[in-house]
Every structure is written in C-alpha cells, then in structure tokens.
Amino acid sequence: MLKTNRRELLKRAAAASVAPLFLPMMQRVRAEAAGAINAMPKRFLFVVKSSGLTPAELVPKGLVAKLTKPGSEKGWPAELKPAESLLDVSLGDHELPDSLQPLSPFKNDLTLLQGLSGKMCRGGHSAWYGALGCYHTGSEGNPGRAASATVDGRLAKSLPAIFPHVGLTLGGKVLSGVKDSVVYPGISAIDTDRPLPYQASPQMAYKNLFGIAAEGAGDQAEQQLKSMLLDHMVSDIQQVQAQIAGADREKLDHYLEAFESLRDRRRQLSGLEATIRRHAPLVDDKYESNVETDRIEAHFDIATATLIAGLSNVVTIRADTLDITYRGLGIQKHVHGLGHAETVPGMTAIEARNRIRRFQVEQIARVAAKLKAVPEGDGTMLDNTLIVYLSDSAEKHHGSCVEWPFVLLGGLTGKFKKSAGGRYLQYPAYGNPGHRTIACLYNSLLYAVEQPHELFGRFDLNLDQDQQRGPLAELLV
C-alpha cells in the first residue's frame, strides 16, 4: 500500500511540474473549441534548395510567351522579363508549369511570388545566412558569421514549441555531400553568432524527435535511463551550486539552465507520448538508404509528422547541396555540374534541373496533402501553415540576387490574401518604382504572427529605403 501511495504521489508531482509546459497546447485546444480562428497555431516549413530557383520556370504556361525571354547563353534556362509595374494574375485561368504540376490540387492555397530582390546578400554559390537573414556574409566556401537571427530563427522564438526549430538536411555546407551527423549548414540562426543545427541523418532525426514513442523494450529502457540521468544531473548541479560563488557559480548557472531545459523537454515529450506515437512516420529502408532521393523523402516525412504532432512550429529543410547527385532520378551528375549547364546522358542540364525541382515540389505536395487531411478549427492544418520554397542562391546557380523567386503554399490562419485558383504575383523589377525586397516578404511573415517588423536584416544601399521597409501589402489581409 505504501508503494502504491508513493507511486501516486510521484505521478501527481510529475504532473504538477509538467502542467505549465503544456499551456500552449491547452490554449490551442481551448481556441479550437471556442472557434477562435485567429488564435489557431501558425506553422512554417521552409524548403531551401541549392543552385538557384529559375524564375522563368515558375511562370504559368499561358504567360510564358509574354513574361519570359531566351537565356543569355546557349544551354542556359530562359529568363524572366523585368516588369515595369505590379502584375497580379489569378492562377485559376492558367496551367502551372511542368515542375509545379504536383501543386495543382492546392492552387487555391498557392502564391507564386516573383520580382523581389536580395542584393543586401552576397551572390555566388550561396547567400548563406543571408538567404533567410537579409545580410551579406561569408565567402564561396564559408558561411561566415550570423549577423542576426534569420527569419526561421525569429519565427521559432515567436512560436514556442518543445523543439523551437527543427533543421533537416542531406549535407553540411553548400559544397559538401551527404552526411550522417549534426551539421551547421550556415543558413539558419536563432540570434547573432548563434547558428542553428541541422540533422543530416533521417534515422537520427527520427530518434531525436520521436524516440520517446519507441516500441522496442530496449529503446524504452534507454529513454527511461536518459530521464533518470537528467534528473540526477539537475539535482547534483543544484547541490554544488549552493556551495560556490563568483564566476564558477555563474558558469554552473548556465549548465543548470541547459540541463533543466533538456529535462523539461523530455517531460513534455513524455506527456505527448500518445500523440507522438500516433503521428510518428513509419520507419522503412529509406531512413537508412544512401540514395539521396530516399533520404530527402524521409526528411519530408519527418517534417510533416513533426508539425502534425506539435513538436515544432518551425521546420527548415535544406533539400540538397551542390555536391548531391540525384541518382534516384537517373541523373548521373551532381547539382554543381548541372548549374554550369553540363549535360547528362539522356537529358539536357535544363531538363535535369526541372526533374530535380519537380521531385522537390512533389515532396512539398505530399506534405500539403497530409496537412490538408488534418481538421483544425473551421478548416485544416494547411490553412494554418505556410510552406515557403526558395533558393539559397536567388535566381540561378551563381545568383546575382537581383531576382529572388518564392513559392508560397498555405494559409496562416487567414492572414494571407487568396484569390480563386491562386495567385501569380510579380513585383516591378530592380530599380523600378514599386520594387520590393525579400526583407519585405520576411516582414510579412512576422506581421502574420503578430510580431510586426518594419526592417528585417540590412538595407541594400542602392535602393530607396522605403522599398525595403514594412510588409508586402499585397500579401496580407
């Protein structure tokens, strides 16, 4: 009897210590029950590709003749004609380009965004932190330092969750190949000089995110042991902390904060075990595969499950690097070579790049379909999520950053304007009146989560500052 009572007391104590950590979840449940749509959680999935996102390849088929022109060199992709004024066209009357066809079922939630510049960033193989942070950093082979938080890092702070940010990738830096470890690709940061880590191994990412719901007795024992160790670490540090002072005490404060954070996260995960188990992706051979397409698919599965299970509200997938070879798509040339218009057996470099883009878009469509199947509030999870597809090097392999296209899919709880059939939105070209920058898009995302910013990152000194401030009014409701 004494054992039983003690066990019950421990359960109550654990529940009491965990309860405050579930406040965001309880607020979500109450908001949904009350029909408070604006209080629904907002989520972001950033998908970052290498080697440029070719603007002309995003133009709807019926507008290609009007809006594009041949490439500047033989074998190079077509180019987008500079616009003199804002172009806002419904996608309902136009067929999507071939590489975006997988998004056809979601056209009502789709915005193709063109004409923004990002010349406050460096060009070349990668803008590094600049692509999501709007500042110049690094060199061809080195990301340099994070000058401030990138947009995914800032959103992660604004939308707290058990895992504030989840990063998934195939490799490390832009010129590296497949890795099996935690890496710092140099594209995301939570603050100045605080880069965000990415997990390159799907198997390890699964274990870190969903290991609490492991089925095997060995795995469960490992989870229990980790919880016990964390509890003991916190207790031991607290005891030592009480006996010292000065700089050593301050150092222990930081250690204690780190271990308490790990312990609290594990307690949160324990409380969500049933939810995590229900939404955890099915682990199959692709999680251990060395084929790039298998690993990318696994990462997208993990990202989807992470959002649905509520483990994080901000996920960034680095879809490939320049050293990746898409053998699973029959392409026997790495992304770097394709960017230099090197041909491969059976297809041109342009055809190979289109095949890669379509594959990545197919993964985005799979995520959208799963989110759309989950009811939430008066709609679905897709209505409260924004998927942002972009390149880390703007418009081409050696990006000039004068044009930086985006594919936006989702709703953000009604914060973004929609039109029947979706939108094709092209801003006036660089230097023209009405031109805007990628910083304005990121300001728009922050406005949508009620964190208004007038200035994001740093200014392009060759543009009027008013063209770089505030959100894109054409996007926000």
Description of the structure:
- With 477 residues, the protein is of the alpha/beta class.
- The chain has a single domain, classed as Alkaline Phosphatase, subunit A, CATH 3.40.720.
- It contains 13 helices and 16 strands.
- It has helices spanning 2-18, 23-34, 64-67, 130-133, 151-158, 202-210, 217-241, 246-271, 273-279, 292-309, 335-339, 349-372, 438-448, and strands at residues 43-49, 68-69, 79-80, 87-90, 110-114, 166-169, 182-183, 189-191, 194-195, 198-199, 314-318, 375-376, 379-380, 385-391, 406-410, 423-426.
- The strands form 5 sheets. An 8-stranded mixed β-sheet has the order 4-16-5-15-14-1-11-6, with helices on both faces. A two-stranded antiparallel sheet has the order 2-3. Strands 7-10 form a two-stranded antiparallel ribbon.
- Helix 6 runs parallel beside helix 10, helix 7 packs antiparallel against helix 8 and helix 9 runs antiparallel to helix 10.
- It is globular and about 70 Å long.
Look at the structure and give the CATH class.
Alpha Beta
Helicity level: 25-40%
Mean pLDDT: 83
Residue windows where pLDDT falls under 50 for at least 5 positions? 1-27, 223-230
Give the beta-strand count: 16
Strand composition percent: 5-15%
Instruction: Using the CA coordinates, give the radius of gyration.
Output: 23 Å
Describe the global form.
Answer: globular
Count the DSSP helices. Answer: 13
Distance between the termini: 61 Å
Reading the helices and strands in chain order gives: HHEHEEEEHHEEEEEHHHHHEHHEEEEEH
* CATH-defined fold name: Alkaline Phosphatase, subunit A
**Number of spatially distinct domains:** 1
Largest sheet: 8 strands, mixed
Spatial strand order of the main sheet:
4-16-5-15-14-1-11-6
Q: What structural class do you assign from the helix and strand content?
A: alpha/beta
